[in-house]
Amino acid sequence: MDKQFGFLEVCAQKLNSSHCGDDLFTNMVGEGKPVLLAECCGELLKIGKDCYLGIAQIILSSYEYINIASKAIPKSKHTWNDCIHVIENWNSGGDFDRY
User: Does the keyword Signal apply (predicted)?
Assistant: First the structure.
């Protein structure tokens, strides 16, 4: 098995086992301001940037989503960066759970 494929297969399993997977996907392809829960951001950061963005690229290269990939790929990177800020604020004692 190809190393890259194996890596992304494990990533997909991590993301699918997370109850936040659907929320993260909706944030990537949906319209409007994303809603990011601290809990989901924490799970996303545990999964890792390469893992998350790799899976995002595979999903968005599929026929079903190719027409929105030019917006959704940058949006997925933005979600990653937003989650870093959410977790930093949460760890510093912020009393909110939505960004």
Answer: yes
